[in-house]
């Protein structure tokens, strides 16, 4: 229906906006295909291109910011929430989402930079138990990686991981903190490797009952590494993270995670202007 409306009038900004919303709904209910996410972004951009009034639609900015946040494009997400606030000051959700995301980035950056304030002696003691044996199933020649590759994975320190995908590699470390922010989209924890480097890990599509505990040994097969440099208003954040799209991709304390560990991420967006 939404696509048909666009085809009837390619210059109708509202139809492009509705199509963008349809793609967002499809994205979160049908497996989170990256192509569908891009189609949503493109539809919103086209709405603004063909109809100047679309740029003044707070719903468009809010919904797109929600998708930006899920995609970990935090600077764009904050800008979108802020724009929605400016366009509709009486709407309570955009400033709350902006505040929550700023608080999340603030707390997460501090925890990573300070390694959750762990004492060096205690940290070294905990890390002393790290060994290749902790790779568990990923050390098997029959291990099937997220990319579809079959074969054992090579353990790498965080400093040796490239930005983006790391085929054939595994990140290995100990959990030093977990973070459950308001309105969270991901279960977030901090992992320290054998070199005592710390990195944030965001795990998506987790069941409410799933989590990791401080001291757990975690293996992340073929980690997707990101670098976030965000400036918004008077705050700046710079941190490195690993994105994990499902807890089923992790090995915790030598074990794969049970199917019940996973459930689809739920997000809040506004389907249409009220």
Automatic annotation (TrEMBL):
Residues 255-274 are annotated as: Disordered. Residues 153-264 form the Tetratricopeptide repeat protein 5 OB fold domain. Residues 259-274 have a biased composition (Polar residues). It holds the Pfam family TTC5_OB. This is Tetratricopeptide repeat protein 5 OB fold domain-containing protein. It comes from Conger conger (Conger eel).
